Fold these 4 entries.
Entry 1:
Amino acid sequence: MPVIPSGRPRNGRRPGDVSYLSLAFPDVARGERFYAGLLGWTFPVGQPGRPQGDGVTPEVEPGDGVTPEVGMWDGARPGSAATRGAVPGFRVEDIGVSVVRVRDLGGTATDAVERPYGLEAECSDNQGLPLFLHQLPDEPADDGTDLTNGRQHGDVAYLTFEVADLGLAEAFYGPLLGWSFSAGSVDEGRQITGVTPMAGLWAGGTPGLIPAYRVDDIGVAVARTAELGGVAGPIDERPYGLAADFCRDDQGIRFHLVELG
């Protein structure tokens, strides 16, 4: 699996960490143009995308990949339900055991298949949200670097899982991935503990996954979102820095922006 130049991993370290973030678009080329303009992502010529469909994997600088690893792909794949927006992958120790557990917990899971990077199963949770499971080779030894909120402009700083029912989500992801939960800042939320990048559950809105991208200057990023045909929410001050929530790209895919203090 890819590592960033320092040797630090891009695909999580522990079971339950995010191993990959797929961004499914109606038009992948438009997705490339938007996120290249907003986040500085580049797309190496000839780089293969995900095996399941047409896609590309962005970098922040030449040879310096986005953390965690992100891929863009065509969400309208033959033989599969159309997908739009962000779909997470998670590291697991034993994918065979995890596939059975997904099914026992009320989700769906394909049998594991071998990919060049390890074993993979395509799943959905007990509320219908799509996800992947990955059994991957061991990552380099932990060098102590904190990747909780990414490390540079263009990285993923936070993931918000929007769900219809918080209790059902906790009952699924706790036993499956070993997650534990603490109270969020509001009754509709839960903070997920022990996962990289940081993540939380939110009951409300349209079910799905919303990534928050780290930016160096949120004012510039909000203006650039509009210039590129997207929509950005107002900038709010938070305990951790500045945030613009409920943004959308030029294809309607949701995201947040954060400038960390």
Entry 2:
Amino acid sequence: MSGLAFEIPDELLNEIAERLERQRWAHVEACAGYLGCDVRRVRDLRERGMPARRIGKKLVFDLREVDAWIERAGVRV
């Protein structure tokens, strides 16, 4: 069986990278889905120090920071 090879244009790779970068941010509900818990648990973790930022009135989470915090803090989700 032979492998399939093709070239992906740089513009497409850049667009994919930009979209992935934007997707690292999540609002409370999306963060809960990412972690596999309910919104109350996300709020509880936030009160315990899980990093988040306010953008206007919205609380958003950098999922990479969330992952790192959970690992450092040894928290069970």
Entry 3:
Amino acid sequence: MKIVIPAERPDLDAPADPRFGRCACFAVVDPDTMECEFLENRAAAEVSGAGIAAATLVASAGAEVVIAGSLGPKAMDTLRAQGLTLYQGPAGTVRELLQAYRDGGLTEYTGPNVGAHHGMGGGGGRGMGRGRGRGMGGGRGRR
């Protein structure tokens, strides 16, 4: 069996990345032997379709189970179409989520828990924000 968990870096003790489609990499782990490989998530830099591309990568790696903090509707549909079982992962390291799975302490997803384009980073200092200020263009051309 292979379990996939989105990770911030290729290390079992790395924090699990809550963003599925835009994580840095995926830990692909055999929970019985703890044998692990890491897949770079090339979909993370995509302008759109990151969740679908990441789900396709995970399915092609032979995964049977995905543990993720957040799954959008398109990634979820793609993973389920491939027959994968999906569990919601709380915050923690990859190793901690694997242990929670082994202990039976995870909840299976019943539907997406974020909307499409969730991991794109709008606002919060990254990319284009939503313009919450009261200015009219930052003063350009005014004296």
Entry 4:
Amino acid sequence: MLDVVYRLGSARAREVLGGIPDPPSYSAVRATLQIMVAKGLLRKRREGRNDVYTPARTPLQASRAALKQLVRTFFGGSAVDAAAALFDASDAKLSDADHARLRALIDAARREGR
């Protein structure tokens, strides 16, 4: 549902319902959107008889917050364990450029004391 709102920029519940495959009921969509507002993921404004939902964060902010929560929940807060799981789960081959970028990120984190 959040993906639909990000893709459209703003959306009413009916638009969210129409934008997801195999959607739940309209009331379930509305209830979930309300939960997302309460959690600070979406903002809500009234337009006529409809509530219009917009993202409360940029996609980058939202993805970083979700990733932090995922690392806390499934990897006990360990970025190393999360990264190792990504490498183990991925069938993709890393290019030399990918390796260089990862090395640069690790070096920068080391310099910053992270």
